[in-house]
Amino acid sequence: MRRFTSAVLSSLLAFAGLTAMASTPAEADTGVEYVALGDSYASGVGAGPYDAASGDCKRSPLNYAHQWAAANPEYTLKDLSCSGATIADVRNNQLSALSSSTNLVTLTVGGNDAQFSSVAQGCLTESDAYCRTATLWMSSYARNQLVDSLASLYTDIKSRAPHALVLVFGYPQVLSPSGTCPVIDLSAAKRTYMNGFADALAEGGQAAAAKAGVYFVDMRKQFAGHGACGSDSWFNDLTNAAAVFHPNAAGYTQGYAARFKAIWG
């Protein structure tokens, strides 16, 4: 991978459209350490196959951390991401991997704190009115309380890994506005409500990143035109109920990993 001076890397991050309020990140060096943190979107749920040693955390070699690390072998990857992780889980079970020797940290978390799975299930099985109420309620949470919780976590990460570049990868919109969903279809209204909730999660993560002084990677443009139930979906639908509305292999490769590599390496 190319070695960047601090000034060049800072310019590249700004050009790539990242939200940044941090001091200039340290230059990568030979034999550098990369720690990946987060929930199922970070661990690669939906990409498969999973590393048997990761158990219920369901870490896939196709998650964005492993794909980027494979292209940058000078980095030693420690992947602590875990399906189902909340902010508290990341703090209690994953941050111990960080140290002053850590050079790069990536993270996706917050969806479980905002009850994404429960909201999605309600939208799939209940009325349009129920879906609207649920998504509006949790969207308010994502834009308010969640911001402080995420900012506190990001600050903890910086304190444990003071020399690391911290990249927070956000959540994309999940649903195509048109097309038919197999098993259980979704009305146009429900799709709008759920995508609005995804926007709230992205905006909350972005606000928290600015507050804590880390870099936010907005994934919504990268996934545009590839929502679930559309003709070129990068998501699992209800035909894979265990990973519904998580990216599929194309989503992790052409979505997350491609965006990561476009930013750095």
UniProtKB/TrEMBL annotation:
Q: Which Enzyme Commission number(s) are on file for it?
A: 3.1.-.-
Where would one find the signal peptide in this protein?
1-22
Q: Name one GO molecular function term.
A: hydrolase activity
Where along the sequence do coiled-coil regions lie? none
A Pfam entry, by short name: Lipase_GDSL_2
What's the protein name?
Answer: SGNH/GDSL hydrolase family protein
The protein's superkingdom reads Bacteria
Which species expresses this protein natively?
Answer: Streptomyces justiciae
| Primary enzyme class | hydrolase
The chain positions of domain SGNH hydrolase-type esterase read: 36-252
| Keywords from the named record | Hydrolase, Signal
